[in-house]
Amino acid sequence: VRRFERVERREPFVEHLQVSGEVDWFSLISVISLLCFAPFIVFFFVMACDQYQCSVTQPLFDLVQGKTTLLSIWARAPSFTWSAAKIYAVWVTFQVFLYMCVPDVVHKVIPGYAGGVQDGARTPAGLINKYEINGLQSWIITHVLWAVNAHSLHWFPPTIIFDHWIPLMWCANILGYTVSTFAFIKAHHFPTNAEDCKFTGNIFYNFMMGIEFNPRIGKWFDFKLFFNGRPGIVAWTLINLSYMAKQQELYGQVSNSMILVNVLQALYVLDFFWNEAWYLKTIDICHDHFGWYLGWGDCVWLPYLYTLQGLYLVYHPVQLTNIQALAVLSLGLAGYYIFRSTNRQKDLFRRTEGACSIWGRKPTYIECSYRSSDGGVHRSKLMTSGFWGVARHFNYTGDLMGSLAYCAACGFGHVLPYFYIVYMTILLVHRCVRDEHRCSSKYGKDWTRYTDAVPYRLIPGLF
Ligand code: NDP
């Protein structure tokens, strides 16, 4: 199984790698385009809010009509400040401290929570890394301190993140590029596990998609787990709280749409930390190598683009009617329920090898076999009941419903808040196609039997 995974379980661009280890032109152009344009996409959205009240079309019209230039937009952007640098340094240092120095006690207190030292998936070289799972604890400590400060200590205003949003973006970029460059140099000169390194012969590709699989400093500081979870996802809910505080400061009240965005996204974030041990077995940790894609993405793309709805609501405090608010809440909760239940059903099914109950019945499934690269034949099962009988990736459908709810909370005044659902749709449809391609080559005719039994990918009757 391990050797099969080594061959088949690859990430998007890796599928385009030729046997020689060279990168084909399509992959190379994709990588260079992302390296060049992704930072400008983030800059564009943030500046559209700062200078154009969150209109994404107005700056484009102004540029086309010659009313403004890219240079003048750039010149009006708030620059790097040392106070933002101090805030950012304190923030990252504090998260490193929580990650490295505070062993998890939450799993001893809350039954059913899998925290503390946990095993990751087996790497292609056959290693099983150990992880200290303490994300939920870090999240709780950080948010309790945030609340204590807001209500009693008043060391800093709760709007601090919004107030330094653009200078903080420069700091996040500095960290994102530093970490990616460090990971690149480290992989060449002092890799954590040389056998798990992947060199393609193309410097841009290596820099972007990463060389080392699980770079670490010392025994416990794992780059992937730390950067994805801590500066990125712990920050997500704090950023939203800061937007909420800004609305209160500017308008004397908080809109129900802002509360909805805060609540629904907090649910998603808490779910992530509650299931952090499960996350060790998903594509991000099991398949991705650590490069700019993860390092810069976690530091900049995630905190800046996943939080666009809250930012938009600071500029446009939408007040939904009760019916609209209820509709958004129902969509968000239904999406979350489907997302979580679908993932749980597969987890249970695979853990018990089908000896479980799904929706009150014994699950139905298709017996599959596949051949690993060493010639061995292995057996597996693909479930055809529960949500896995409704569509082949109904967990993605639930995720997309939740994402749409965040956007819909912002009303229909502007397109900017809808960036998230467009991005998530591209991400998950691409992931779905990629996963099916992999499963089809893994299971062959058995996969065809499965797709005959469950004909739709995301939306029954449509796709
Ligand atoms: P999945 O959890 O959907 O796992 C896909 C794998 O499950 C397949 O490769 C196959 O693996 C196995 N499988 C497929 N069909 C069946 C079946 N019928 N029965 C049993 N096993 C099956 O993939 P991800 O890791 O991509 O997603 C995990 C979650 O993370 C999703 O809910 C997704 O929405 C979420 N996500 C969120 C993102 C975000 O930015 N917010 C980004 C990416 C993901 P095998 O080879 O073992 O058969």
From TrEMBL:
Calcium in keyword set: no
Taxonomic path: Eukaryota, Metazoa, Chordata, Craniata, Vertebrata
Protein family: Belongs to the ERG4/ERG24 family.
InterPro entries listed in its UniProt record: ERG24_DHCR-like (IPR001171), Sterol_reductase_CS (IPR018083)
Record function comment: Catalyzes the last step of the cholesterol synthesis pathway, which transforms cholesta-5,7-dien-3beta-ol (7-dehydrocholesterol,7-DHC) into cholesterol by reducing the C7-C8 double bond of its sterol core. Can also metabolize cholesta-5,7,24-trien-3beta-ol (7-dehydrodemosterol, 7-DHD) to desmosterol, which is then metabolized by the Delta(24)-sterol reductase (DHCR24) to cholesterol.
Metabolic or biological pathway: Steroid biosynthesis; cholesterol biosynthesis
EC number assigned by the record: 1.3.1.21
UniProt keyword list: Cholesterol biosynthesis, Cholesterol metabolism, Endoplasmic reticulum, Lipid biosynthesis, Lipid metabolism, Membrane, NADP, Oxidoreductase, Steroid biosynthesis, Steroid metabolism, Sterol biosynthesis, Sterol metabolism, Transmembrane, Transmembrane helix
Membrane topology reported for the UniProt record: Multi-pass membrane protein
GO cellular component terms given for this protein: endoplasmic reticulum membrane
Keyword Transmembrane helix applies: yes
Catalysed reaction equations from the record: 7-dehydrodesmosterol + NADPH + H(+) = desmosterol + NADP(+); cholesterol + NADP(+) = 7-dehydrocholesterol + NADPH + H(+)
UniProt main location, coarse: endoplasmic reticulum
Compartments, as annotated in UniProt: Endoplasmic reticulum membrane
GO molecular function term, any single one: 7-dehydrocholesterol reductase activity
Name of the protein described by the UniProt record: 7-dehydrocholesterol reductase
Top-rank lineage group of the source organism: Eukaryota
Gene Ontology biological process terms in this record: brassinosteroid biosynthetic process; cholesterol biosynthetic process
Enzyme class: oxidoreductase
TM regions (residue ranges): 25-46, 250-270, 290-308, 320-339, 403-429
